[in-house]
Batch of 3 targets.
Target 1
Amino acid sequence: MDLQLGGKTVLVTGAGQGLGRAIAEAFAGEGSNVAFHYYSSAEGAEEAAKASAAAGVKAISVSADLRSGDAVRSAVDAVEAEIGPIDILINNAAATQSKPFLQTTEDDWAPQIEVTVAGTLRVTQAVAAQMAANGGGSIVNIMGDSGRVGESHLLVTATTRSTTLGLTKSLAKELARYKIRANAVSIGLIQTASLDAHIGSADDEKMKRILSAYPLRRLGLPADITPTVLLLASPLSSWTTGQVISVDGGYAMP
């Protein structure tokens, strides 16, 4: 199926590693021009952008600290200047931490709030302004299921992730007049290099307990998530907005 993504310009945040990189590479595979955003994963973003460009699309790596409005605006302007106006925004970047809530401090909360909440708002506002001026676009927000159902030891992460629900639905209602769609993909645990940092080290017994919460009895892979993201971003989903789609192995069922 042709998803009609060829020639579209896509910005993926947090695309230097893990799921973000996989999503950005999937868009490049569909013929999209892709900006791989990163903050600390420069090597991965630059490597992925170089490989994508070699495959025949326009691709760049772009650095920005999402805690800085000036940095975000500069990055968005750089994407437009180098590969074209942004048609699709994938908000993937987030800060997470696994820690009992009563042991956390405000220093633990701050980066999660500044990156996952305020950082996403900064990027979305900068890109949406560009989209509105250029006739529309599509925004897909990635969130964790902890933000929908809650999760022990991920209370602060779940709180910040839950804001994605309100953001997505509000964007869909407010920006439809500009032909901008907004949807979200809510995911379960994904096997990436950062998995241990997210859940803490897991021995066989702990992993059995984790898997018991998934009816399909396995964790997700990046390749399980990318098709849904691509479809929601695609013109084929032009009548879909304000929706939260779960791709989570059955972990949480509405």
Note: The longest strand covers residues 137-144.
Target 2
Amino acid sequence: MITGASTGIGAGLARAFATQGAEVGLHYNSSKQAAETLAAEIRKTGGVAELFRADASNSEELRVAVEDAAVRLGGLRGLINNAGEVVRRVSYEEFTEKDYNEITDLNARSILVASKAALPHLKKEGGFVINTTSITVRNGASNGAVLYRSSKSFVSNVTRGMAKEWIKYGIRVNAVAPCVITTPFHERYSTQEQLDAMLSTVPHGRLGVAVDCVGAYLFLASDTLAGYIIGQTIEVNGGQLMP
């Protein structure tokens, strides 16, 4: 199951995993048409795709979606926690309780809720969890994305802690940290001037696209290739950050 799978990185992952023969659960919230189009595309090529709608910031809706996915897919082998949004740009100086709750519920608490709901099903086969975090966990955020990026720091730490707890069940937990990936996310939240400024810091000379991230997730999902990789974060950033 992939949360936030209707567009951007999530959609790229859905196509890639389906191409590898995985039966994929596509979670979406507001982008129903995009999710349906993606599912139809996967099915047209012989793949299996099931749709699950839930507001990821609503714990009960998300829990039900994960449980439903386990039933309709005949179990769960893996969970990719990819859903996330800036929601709105706000500074540390000006944020409100409403800002904090909405941003952290979506980007931080949803990781815990989805993973906990998936755990009983992942235990049966010894699966994987891959969380989507961010380059700014390491270098900080600005331009009003501070609460979003701080919530991603939470995700990175959860990845390490969950990895230590869940490996006893044969469940490998890791993360991927993209940089600026040109998706509808940035169409909503970034100006062209902001994108140009970020581009100037990328040695590769271009901003990323969704397919640039796919290999890292496929690698971490593979027991053969990544069976001894636990609690790690793969940076996908065109050289923007070299820790």
Note: Residues 8-236 form a domain with the Rossmann fold fold (CATH 3.40.50.720).
Target 3
Amino acid sequence: MTHNMSVDLCGVRLKNPVMTASGTFGSGAEFSEFFDLNRLGAVVTKGVASTPWEGNPTPRICETPSGMLNAIGLQNPGFEVFAGRDLKFLEETLLPDEEPAEEGSLALSSGMTGTKVVVNVCGHSEEEYLDCVEKLSGERRVDFLEINISCPNVREGGIAFGTDPKGVERITAAVRKAARQPVIMKLSPNVTSIAEIARAAEAGGADALSLINTLTGMKIDVERRTFALANRTGGLSGPAIHPVAVRMVYECAKAVRIPVIGMGGIRTAEDALEMIMAGATAVSVGTVSFHDQRAALGVIDGIEDYLERHCVPDVRDLIGCVR
């Protein structure tokens, strides 16, 4: 029995629902040494700004039980280097789309669609976001923009927009007006009501949502009697946050009509399927890739195996099946 693994995200066909998570995969150059990136539904790049950012001082990563804290601060080389190096690599590495198959065709499950590119965009201000978005609008190989309004490790912009519904709606509307590609707003879990934030992004014109970003946490080195991170706080990711992420994906999927991309502690196909059954159209695999560089492939293969074992002809039949 042939199973359809493809999903529709904002009118764009993904060969399967598995993506990488921004900040954990770079542009994929390092991971291409371990597996063929063309197996993925989409590659999500590390955050890029219109100009280079140095990020936070070190130390800025530490392990925690069932997770890790990071306070990288969205270090990135800026648009010019990103376009000339990272986008060029992806354009040379990822195969182009083949002839589109008809809706409902079993050929969709065999990878008739090329791996898509999602560029994560960051900024300190609305002007910085828009400058980068406008520059990316002219890049042919960029299929989606993921707007990071949820990083807890920068002192300006980002989280300031992402925790205020009015701010979320305003920045979303401004980005949507400037962007040529579908706009995915990346939401922060560090809010009172994630559903309220999701509705604000939808009201601003978002084409999709991605969640969750990291939870704000802290670790203290008791032997040195100081903070483990120079930034004092950092973003907690990994298996520890997965149940929180599933709950928030469920709440957002019920609150909005646009697609939701689920992330947060996904290690296995079972973790990904929880997100999908909670209402996610696609999922992003992140922190586990530091431990297992081929983890995303295991998730893809595991979902295919689940469809086979349970005689489910189409992965889309599982989206939001838990009410």
Note: The two ends are 28 Å apart (CA to CA).
